[in-house]
Design brief:
The complex is a heterodimer of chains A (about 260) and B (about 325).
Chain A (H helix, E strand, L loop, with lengths): L12 E10 L2 E11 L4 E5 L6 H8 L7 E6 L2 E2 L7 E4 L13 H6 L3 H4 L7 H13 L15 H14 L4 E5 L7 H16 L3 E5 L6 H4 L2 E6 L1 E7 H4 L2 H8 L3 H17 L1
Parallel strand pairs in A: 3-8, 3-9, 6-7, 7-8
Antiparallel strand pairs in A: 1-2, 1-4, 4-5, 9-10
Helix pairs in contact in A: 4-5
Chain B lengths: L4 H25 L3 H22 L4 H25 L4 H26 L10 H4 L7 H20 L1 H9 L1 H6 L4 H23 L4 H12 L6 H25 L5 H19 L5 H4 L3 H5 L20 H8 L1
Helix pairs in contact in B: 1-6, 1-9, 1-10, 1-11, 2-3, 2-4, 2-9, 2-10, 3-4, 3-9, 6-9, 9-10, 10-11, 10-12, 11-12
């Protein structure tokens, strides 16, 4: 594991009593979450459950009404250098005049600090990260010339260039084809094997048990969290999604029928 | 060194165009183009008040007043946005016109009370009067441009990150708000430096049009900024020369019209992004446009977009 001098007993990541509100309407209420061990963690919940808000608030992108967030035992603001982020694909202007290479290079800016410009070391790292997501042939493209899946992989490469130990990823599988989804999961798997922790906002319930170690079921409050085997139960899902799960049931049945007939 | 008046004015507008291209590139990419317009219009009352307070027409005094009230306008915009439910454009429209209205009223009343003082003609700041620029003014502009350019080059990496992905910038530990304020400050200073030559009404155009035209020619931020500076500088020089040639035509509007002509030409003729390039008869046109590179060197929309294919090739 990549752990440094920190207290062995402190959790990788800890949210204590987090409450977030937009226009006085709470979107997250009394969130307590502790991730003790490195691994792949999915955050699932219905639309508007506050999944993205939770990770964004944890990193200080959204102001909290109350609560505190720590990583490796110290306030998260001091550990940002060890934290990587993959935002939602729609959060940037893809028409921006920047190449794939330059975008990924931005992942190294954090370690460079003020004023210093990227050099050989950062450029080599960038190329390796591009190779790891299979995008090295597209390095000189303007980012708008890529497909959705390719754009997502550029964001992943940029996060890799951050060389972080704790990653937050906001729907990295949204709107990508099945092939890219597999590539992304293989990447997450290998990051996890390197002893890193990856927290993924995930929307596809069918793949949770296949790919993730732990799951957090969220609907404004945390309904349940823990290892997938014991936490990802239909009872917990029922209380997370409420009546809306019936739609998912029908969907799951349809999928099952489809696979049976194939 | 000895300069003729035309050379002084030319140097001033050239430097101004370059600075505006530099700062404007980030302003346009950050969708803050109109913020410059708010600063410019809001500067007028401050300029008048500085004149009334200090009874001086020194450029430094007037422009300090202009900068303060311009920034006050910008701050008012962000406060109104926070405390009302009004949208960006509505807030900007309100602030801009209120400050500008106040400024116009002040210039008129100053002119009425200082009837015998030719120096009290502050109305020249409304559309600008580059022809009256003095050597000292140009030196001040040169200092502003040098400082602006220095900061932009020093913080190019940070400003690029801020403009492309503010959240990622913040997650990496930079103060996005601090950088944002710095960029706003640079914009305000550039705008205010441009007031004597281009005027309250049109300075923002110098900030917006050259970068917008430059975007047609490049997909790289650094190159786009250089092209924006070139277009800004060219517009400044050409506008000044035209204004000197056709006596009585104001410089500000001519500078803006020149940059607009460059914008229109870029929109039509630029490779890849121009309308001609995108037209169906592109292949026919290529033979007429010798500067256009062949398609082999520049990747266009790829025919296969399946990312899995490339992934397999890679592994």
């Amino acid at each position: 594991m990549t752990a440094r001098t920190e207290n062995k007993t402190s959790a990788v990541f800890d949210i204590h009593d987090m409450t977030v509100a937009y226009d006085r309407r709470p979107v997250l209420w009394n969130i307590d979450l502790t991730l003790r061990n490195p691994g792949l963690v999915a955050i699932v919940g219905p639309n508007g459950a506050g999944k993205s808000t939770m990770i964004r608030a944890a990193m200080g992108l959204v102001p909290m009404v109350s609560g505190s967030v720590s990583a490796w035992g110290s306030p998260i603001g001091r550990e940002l250098g060890r934290i990587g982020y993959v935002p939602q694909r729609g959060s940037v202007d893809w028409d921006f005049p920047i190449s794939v290479f330059e975008t990924v290079l931005m992942g190294t800016y954090g370690s460079l600090g003020w004023f210093r410009h990227p050099g050989r070391v950062q450029r080599d790292l960038t190329m390796r990260c591009l190779e790891r997501v299979g995008m090295q042939d597209y390095a000189q493209r303007q980012i708008g010339q890529l497909s959705g899946g390719q754009q997502q992989r550029v964001f992943l490469a940029r996060a890799l260039a951050q060389q972080a130990e704790l990653y937050f990823m906001d729907e990295p599988m949204a709107g990508v084809d099945a092939a890219t989804e597999r590539v992304v999961f293989e990447l997450l798997q290998s990051l996890s094997e390197e002893g890193r922790t990856i927290v993924v906002v995930h929307h596809d319930l069918r793949t949770v048990s296949e790919y993730f170690d732990e799951v957090v079921l969220l609907n404004v409050r945390i309904v349940a969290s823990g290892p997938v085997d014991t936490t990802f139960t239909s009872a917990n899902l029922q209380s997370t999604y409420g009546g809306r799960l019936s739609i998912l049931d029908t969907m799951a049945e349809a999928v099952q029928k489809q696979t049976e007939t194939e | 060194m000895f300069f003729t008046q035309t050379q002084i004015v030319l140097t001033g507008t050239l430097l101004l165009g370059i600075a505006a291209g530099m700062v404007g590139t980030f302003a346009v990419l950050r969708r803050r183009a109109l913020a410059g317009d708010v600063v410019a219009h809001s500067a007028l009352p401050g300029l008048c008040l500085a004149f009334l307070t200090f009874q001086s027409r020194s450029m430094l005094v007037l422009l300090s007043g202009a900068l303060l009230s311009g920034l006050l306008g910008a701050v008012t915009v962000s406060l109104l946005k926070r405390f009302t439910r009004l949208r960006d454009d509505a807030v900007q429209g309100i602030v801009l016109s209120v400050f500008y209205g106040g400024g116009i009223a002040l210039t008129r009343s100053i002119q009425n009370t200082h009837r015998n003082d030719p120096g009290a003609d502050l109305e020249s700041f409304i559309i600008g009067q580059a022809a009256t620029m003095l050597k000292g003014d140009v030196q001040q502009i040169a200092v502003v441009v040098a400082v602006t350019a220095g900061i932009v080059l020093l913080l190019f990496k940070e400003l690029k990150l801020l403009s492309f992905d503010e959240q990622f910038c913040q997650v990496q530990g930079w103060s996005a708000m601090g950088l944002d304020i710095l960029l706003m400050l640079l914009t305000a200073i550039t705008v205010v430096a441009g007031l004597p030559a281009v005027g309250v009404v049109l300075t923002a155009a110098l900030l917006i049009i050259p970068p917008a035209a430059a975007r047609f020619w490049s997909d790289r931020l650094s190159r786009m900024m250089m092209i924006a500076c070139a277009i800004g500088g060219t517009s400044g020089v050409t506008g000044t020369l035209l204004s000197a040639r056709y006596d009585g035509l104001p410089t500000g509007p001519l500078i803006v019209l020149t940059s607009t002509v460059i914008f229109a030409l870029s929109w039509v003729f630029a490779p890849h992004r121009g309308v001609l390039w995108k037209s169906r008869d592109m292949t026919d046109l290529q033979s007429f446009l010798p500067w256009v590179e062949s398609d082999d060197t520049v990747p266009r929309a790829p025919t296969t977009l399946d990312p899995h294919v490339s992934a397999q090739e890679a592994s």
